[in-house]
What we know:
Layout lengths: L1 E7 L3 E7 L5 E8 L2 H8 L6 E6 L4 H11 L3 E4 L5 H4 L6 H14 L11 H31 L16 H6 L5 H32 L3 H6 L7 H11 L8 H7 L4 E6 L2 E7 L5 H16 L4 H12 L4 H22 L5 H7 L5
Parallel strand pairs: 1-4, 4-5
Antiparallel strand pairs: 1-2, 2-3, 6-7
Helix pairs in contact: 5-7, 5-9, 9-11, 10-13, 11-12, 11-13, 12-13, 13-14
Amino acid sequence: xxxxxxxxxxxxxxxxxxxxxxxxxxxxxxxxxxxxxxxxxxxxxxxxxxxxxxxxxxxxxxxxxxxxxxxxxxxxxxxxxxxxxxxxxxxxxxxxxxxxxxxxxxxxxxxxxxxxxxxxxxxxxxxxxxxxxxxxxxxxxxxxxxxxxxxxxxxxxxxxxxxxxxxxxxxxxxxxxxxxxxxxxxxxxxxxxxxxxxxxxxxxxxxxxxxxxxxxxxxxxxxxxxxxxxxxxxxxxxxxxxxxxxxxxxxxxxxxxxxxxxxxxxxxxxxxxxxxxxxxxxxxxxxxxxxxxxxxxxxxxxxxxxxxxxxxxxxxxxxxxxxxxxxxxxxxxxxxxxxxxxxxxx
Length: 346
């Protein structure tokens, strides 16, 4: 077995190859291109595995390896302390250390998908970026009025219909009006981008039936369902619901020694967009009428005296576990399934 460590950059790819005995048998630097990448890899006898750290080129490298039938393992750089904390650090050394880590089985692999699933994930991330951009521009518009002592509650300040009225309230200074007109144009562009991305997401979502099933849960609309599907990608990458919770930032990390637990806290290495979406969905589910999640929340807070923020965290776990189980089993929403997969509060 040959283990190929690769340190990738936009212009060059650095390779180091070790055999089963841990001996360096080949090293080289090639130009970053499909041709250069494959020509080097094919000089290494099979069986062979390529190792690289997560980074800008990870998705491109993976799609190239899938196309040419090569095995690639994308690793978590946060776990590769031997590389990051070393006093000696450059591209050839990094590539060699990756190969040695792969040979020793000390690699933590990062899940990556290719093809349409990858594009759908990128689409949902882009949509949320556009929403944040729109919100940021709206805040800047209102800030301009408040800086000039003008109250501007409501949404008419964003509407093209009322812009002249709002401009009339401001000091008629050319620079101020120019800045405001620019912000309004940015808002129009951002809102248009947001609409186009959402339309594309709705079209692509037809290929993923779990999104429609997720929307049957109280508090889950299309955007939440599509985001959760895109971020999780597949239910089979997680061994159990606790693994899903950890990925979503809802799981508990425990540190223990000598049989004694000395630290418990929420996971710190997680998908932030997924956690944000689940927290928003939990808030909506708690407000929904005749929702089993609302009933559970009220029971926890009013009857059992659990703090509201802890109860909301439990509801988010409950909803995620329900959707993960539905997806894995190919089932539609069933309140009984929710009860079976619910997180049991200590």
